[in-house]
Amino acid sequence: MAVGAVLYGLIVLIGLWFFGEVIIRTLFGVDYLAALPLIKVMSLVPLLKSGSFVCVTVILSLNRQKLRVGLQAIVTIVSVIGGFVIIPIFGLYGAVLLYVFIEGLIFFLYTGSVIYLLRGEWK
């Protein structure tokens, strides 16, 4: 499962990064090409989300639902505060960067939690 999730994330990342212009032009027309820089930044999200999905599966299989909810609460608070601060200053680009940061943060917290839990469970 983990390999498939990472492959999915990498394929989407590479596909959007290198072929985003062709995809936008084909599906939506040239009027939407201005979105390409945002799409390239957001192309990291599927990779981060697929990694988070694998980590959440481990957390839930270890019956640590409260840990997951706690981590999500922390990230939600950071997201809301970050949105109030960053979006008025940087607009759309700030929102995109904040979104990628939030996905990276939740991935980092999930991964760290899984490493901690597995070390504790296996000792």
UniProtKB/TrEMBL annotation:
One of its GO terms (cellular component) is plasma membrane. The chain crosses the membrane at residues 7-28, 34-62, 69-90, 96-118. It is a multi-pass membrane protein. The keyword Membrane applies. Keywords: Cell membrane, Membrane, Transmembrane, Transmembrane helix. It is found in: Cell membrane. InterPro entries: Poly_Biosynth_Transport. Its main location: membrane. This is Polysaccharide biosynthesis protein C-terminal domain-containing protein. It comes from Kouleothrix aurantiaca. The lineage of its organism: Bacteria, Bacillati, Chloroflexota, Chloroflexia, Chloroflexales.
